[in-house]
Amino acid sequence: MPFLRFKGFDKQLVQKISPAVVKNFARIAEIPEEIVKIELLQIDSIQNSPPSLEIMMFEREKEKHDAIARSLYQCLSEAGYENTHIFFILLTPSLYYKNGQPLKEIPKMKQPIPHT
Domain residues for 98? Predict the structure, then answer.
């Protein structure tokens, strides 16, 4: 958790950008890199569906969501995907279950990584 779900993208591109995406996402969200999940969803577009990046995560401050979206958009636009729709699906920790138990707290890094 969180899940970054790419729709309408080339698999090789997602594999190529994943290390940078995970690193930047984790830094901005202040979470360990190992809990960031990347998925490529295979969909059949029926009518005018642009590529999209769906981010399922726990809510943070609006500024963090904005920074995450900016960082991801920059990475995708540099790869030729300027028309990507990026959106968040916000989850509630008490309604997120691991091993049958609701989370008691949102995972965070012990010390934020400085921006390099």
Answer: 3-102
User: What is residue 78's predicted lDDT score, i.e. its pLDDT?
Assistant: 95
- Between 113 and 28, name the one with better pLDDT: 28
Does residue 115 lie within any of the structural domains? no
pLDDT tens figures, 6-26: 999 999 999 999 999 999 999
pLDDT tens digits, 98-107: 899 988 877 7
Per the domain annotation, does 111 fall within a domain?
no
What's the total number of domains in the chain? 1
Between CA 81 and CA 89 the distance in angstroms is 21
Find the helix packing angle between 11-29 and 62-78, rounded to 10°.
150
In a domain, 108, yes or no: no
